[in-house]
Amino acid sequence: MAKLREAQKQLTRRLLLESGLELFKTKGYAATTVDDIATAAGTTRVTFYAYFPSRADLMKALIDEQLNAVLQRSRSAEHGSTAQDLVDTVADGSREAIESWLRRAVESWPVIRPIIRIGREAAVVDPVLTNLVERWMEEAVSDIEDGLAKAKRFEPYQRHFRGVLAMAQLDFVAQNWGNADWKIDQDQMIAELAASWAQLLGDA
Asked: Predicted confidence band at 183 (pLDDT cuts at 50, 70, 90)?
C-alpha cells in the first residue's frame, strides 16, 4: 500500500511538472497561474502547494530535475550538478571527442531549448529566479574547467573563462538554431562548432 501511495505521489508530481512546462511554453511564464497548472494536471491548488511552495519552485525543479535528467547531469556537492561525460570529453581534448559530445548535445536541443527560454523569461518576472539559467550554465562551465584541470591544459586562470566562452557559443547556437539563416546544415554546424571548441579547449 505504501508503494502504491508513493507511486501516486510521483505521478502527481510529474503531471504538475509536465503541465507547468506545457503551459509555460504556450501561455508564457508570466501568464500562467498556479490554478492553471493544477487544473491542467487534473488536481487542485491545495495539491499543487503540497508539492511546490510556489510557481517559482516548480520552475526551479524543471531546471534542476528535468533539464539535468535530459543532459545526464548528476547532483554534485561542489558544483550543484555535473556531467562526467563533458568533463571527460574536455579532458580528452580531441576534435573527434568534442564533435561526438556536441552531436549528442544537439539531439537534446528540442527538449532543453524551451526550458532554457522559459527560465530566462521567468527570471525577468520573478525576482527569486534571477540568473536561474545562468547559474545552471555556470555548472557546465565548471565541468569544462574540471576537464581542463584534469588534462593539465592551460593555466589555472584561463580554464574557467575558456569554459565561459565555450558555453556562450553553445548556448547562442542552441537558442537560435532553426530560426537564423546561417546558410549551413546541421552536420556543418556541428563540425564548425567542434572546430571552435577544439581550438578553445583542446590541443589544437
From this structure: very high
Nearest to 166 by CA among 134, 144, 191: 144
Q: CATH number for the domain including 96?
A: 1.10.357
What is the domain-level CATH number for residue 13? 1.10.10.60
Percent of the chain surpassing pLDDT 90: 75
CB within 8 Å of 58: residues ≥ 6 apart: 16, 17, 20, 37, 52
Domain that holds residue 186: 55-201
Q: CB-based contacts of 88: which residues, under 8 Å, 6+ apart?
A: 147
CB 194 within 8 A of CB 102: yes
pLDDT score recorded for residue 204: 59
CA angle 164, 167, 181 (to 5 degrees): 130
Residues 79 and 157 in one domain: yes
Rg (CA), the chain: 19
Cell digits for 172? Answer: 547562442
Q: Which residue has the cell 548556448?
A: 171
Instruction: Give the global pTM.
Output: 0.88
State the average pLDDT over residues 112-129. Answer: 92
* 33/134 Cα distance (integer angstroms): 24
Residue for grid cell 564548425: 192
What one-character DSSP code corresponds to residue 80? E
Whether 92 and 26 map to the same domain: the answer is no
